[in-house]
Amino acid sequence: MSEHVHAVHPEPDMVQLLTPEGQRVEHPDYKLDISEDEIASLYRDLVLVRRIDTEAIALQRQGELGLWASLLGQEAAQIGAGRALKKQDMSFPTYREHGVAWCRDVDPLVLLGLYRGTNLGGWDPKSNNFNLYTIVIGAQTLHATGYAMGVVRDGAVGTGDPDRDTAVLAFFGDGASSQGDVNESFVWAGAGNLPVVFFCQNNQWAISEPVERQSRVPLYQRSAGFGFPGVRVDGNDVLACLAVTRKALDDARSAQGPTFIEAYTYRMNPHTTNDDPRRYRLGSEAETWKLKDPIERVRAYLTREAKIDPSFFADVDAEAKQLAEHVRKGCRELPDPTPESLFDNVHVTMPDELRTQRDEFTDFVNEVSA
Amino acid sequence: MTASGMGTATMAKALNDGLRKSMEDDPKVVIMGEDVGKLGGVFRITDGLQKDFGEDRVIDTPLAESGIIGTAVGLAIRGYRPVCEIQFDGFVFPGFDQIVSQVAKFHNRSAGLVKMPITIRIPFGGGIGAVEHHSESPETYFAHTAGLKVVSCSNPSDAYWMIQQAVADDDPVIFCEPKRLYHAAKAEIDEAPTPLYKARVVRPGQHVTVVGYGPTVSTVLSAAQTAAEDGLELEVIDLRSVSPLDMPTVVESVKRTGRLIVVHEAPHSFGVGAEIAARVTEAAFYSLEAPVLRVTGYDTPYPPSRLEHEWLPNLDRVLDTVDKIMEF
Fold first, then answer.
1. Is B144 a catalytic residue?
2. How far are the Cα atoms of A182, A332, B234 from residue A178, in angstroms, in the given order?
3. Is A214 on the interface with B (CB under 8 A)?
4. How far apart are CA A352 and CA B247, in angstroms?
5. Which of B107, B133, B134, B268 is catalytic?
6. ipTM, 2 decimals?
């Protein structure tokens, strides 16, 4: 075992508005004016995206999906951030932001094609202002930054018009924080005062590598060197994630520049369905984090403090069941791509050489199957 | 006034005029790169453009090539048409991942719903006595990548027209500019462009077809002139586009001459020459009187500049290969 540098603060000093026990607490910088109905609505989001995730894992186990990247444990970070977005804001996910997709009204079935192998994504980033999943770690943070440059050039920042001013939200993880692209995007965003918010879900593990392999300082402190604020938020607290992201996006829209948010959370499941975390971390770690579950604390609050009618929880569970059925059935019905579609959309204008390859391939396939 | 109206221009001026025209034609065109603003680029290709179009459209970027290409991807998603300048050929590699994994694949990954109308300009090739990483020919890496188009201009008129065509193309284009010709002699600008992905027979001949592109076209033309004095007529083809390749033009010529030499500065193996040889063998096997030969850089790192004139496909090496192919 090599010597380990334990320089990352083990007990993070972070923004929290709802304790793991379900108690509302105040933070001087992040007031959240939110109704109990809205909190109930966040609870619904959390439960439903967890159900999508559970169902997708089951589909992978049944051979219906080739792979799945689970969001278990990170629901609050994703729903909090996703619900802070306005319609005109743009978001750039990694490949795990199923919860953000949900907030952007992306049908979960749309996300499955990539993991089932029926397409490579195939959705229009513009239709829900939710970019395609990006698998190369950190690459999308530069796309977000470039998009923010476009927003500035379109005069869609700092006008004071709430329907016009636009922010960009870039997602990435603790592992990606080591990538050159992420650091270059910090340079760009800082120097250009761009309307982009960097939302890092520090789920403690980059596959098998703990976060102290990536950083000697707490991640949120990184942005100081690039000239913009960094804040650590309890990533399992949906209210805190919402409040912190909302403030950062407001700042971005009003030309105050970028913010770096580190959502301190935990990847409860393996990195993907192909991973085996028993080889690199103790089961007791996940047990500790279970006590900080992002859903349980909201349920506790709604039950105890908000006196929400018990039928609400039953309704949400029924809805989750329906959604699971939608995912299960829809996944199996996703159409396989046709062989000749292989050659589609490589270019806007297909070169002759590629057309020849396509024709030869199609003839061959037809001959073999005849 | 554009180069077209001026009659003649150097390649540098022609590119500058072409970029200016693109920016006038389409307000979504933005130029981005290191030193492209006040300085006008280290080769002055963007000279004066920031002054006339403003800092929002001619963007001096931080010194990070992945950042240049990656932010161009985001601008393209937002509806812009970025023209990225990579300062020198050997500096494109920090941006390689964004070019190959993002720019090239985005259209495909989005099922055709997103276009990447990005032009990446790369001053390339040797012969300027430069230090390491300033004389390379990286075009094959990009030609090997699905989703990219790769072109190279060999003269001012093509430079003027091709850069505009590349910028207007909805596909991403790697635009390789032969830097040693930037400030060479002025030449006439044609009234109208040739289609971007079309090769051109620049000198007809009956004995050997010699194909070049970018910086090697002028070398091959000199060779043709010398060979003609010995009664050998070389047919010189300027490929103009490395990917896609205009094979009909090459094959038609080889069917007449029966002999083919491909000339490029990029290293010998696995290159454009090898690809053309394979395709000509398929399309014109029975017309060939001799194997297809290549005159190229060697399979070594680009040499120190005192050796570059021996390393590059120079006049003597082309003529020597012409002799060899005639002896078959």
1. no
2. 7, 38, 55
3. no
4. 9
5. B134
6. 0.96
